[in-house]
Amino acid sequence: MNRLILAAALVLVAVSALAQDKPGAASTVVFTLEKGGDITFEFFPADAPKHVENFLKLVKSGFYDGQRFHRVEPGFVVQIGDPQSKTLPMNDPKMGTGGPGYTIKAEFNSRKFDRGVLGMARSSDPDSAGSQIYIMLGAAPHLNGQYTAFGRVVTGLELVDTIKVGDRVKTARVK
């Protein structure tokens, strides 16, 4: 009987671990761009629970609505999450320095920074992340274990490839 209970418990653990790799396993977020099109993200709550929780909280509050992508590095990343991007010119020296007014502790994990992965930007302090996120345009193994990967694009990656500095997110919604 104990072996049966143990086997059932192991199956449940394995299924829940695999579930976070399948689209629709948890909440998703949809960024609708002002220029048209949607980008849908899914998350890795078992690997970065506080980052997922923080991002979902910010999305629900409307934090990303109206923000512009302030950094585009071809073949590397597109980045958003500075609330100053709603009003400051893209070439303002303060662009890319803003956040939500608090920081969260790093949750480095074994996820690889491959194309489409969603990561949390930070300063040289590992525990300085807050709201700035980046979407990988290509693999970047040097980020593995050094930054927090907390999700990935499940639809709209072709749209991500077209993002330019200044492109605006019209709305961000939890689905």
Give me the number of helical elements: 3
In the residues, how many domains can be counted?
A: 1
Specify the biggest β-sheet.
8 strands, antiparallel
Order of helices and strands: HEEHEEEEEHE
Helix amount? 10-25%
* Rg over alpha carbons: 17 Å
Give the CATH H-level superfamily. Cyclophilin-like
Give a structural overview.
This protein is α+β, with helices and mostly antiparallel strands. It has one domain: Beta Barrel (Cyclophilin), CATH 2.40.100.10. 19% of the residues lie in helices and 23% in strands. The chain has 3 helices and 8 strands; from the N terminus they run H-E-E-H-E-E-E-E-E-H-E. The chain has helices at residues 2-19, 49-60, 157-160, and strands at residues 29-33, 38-43, 71-73, 77-80, 117-120, 133-136, 148-155, 169-174. The chain has an 8-stranded antiparallel sheet. The longest helix is centred in the first third of the chain and has 18 residues, at 2-19.
Strand-helix topology:
Layout: H1 2-19, E1 29-33, E2 38-43, H2 49-60, E3 71-73, E4 77-80, E5 117-120, E6 133-136, E7 148-155, H3 157-160, E8 169-174
Antiparallel strand pairs: 1-2, 1-8, 2-7, 3-4, 4-6, 5-6, 5-7
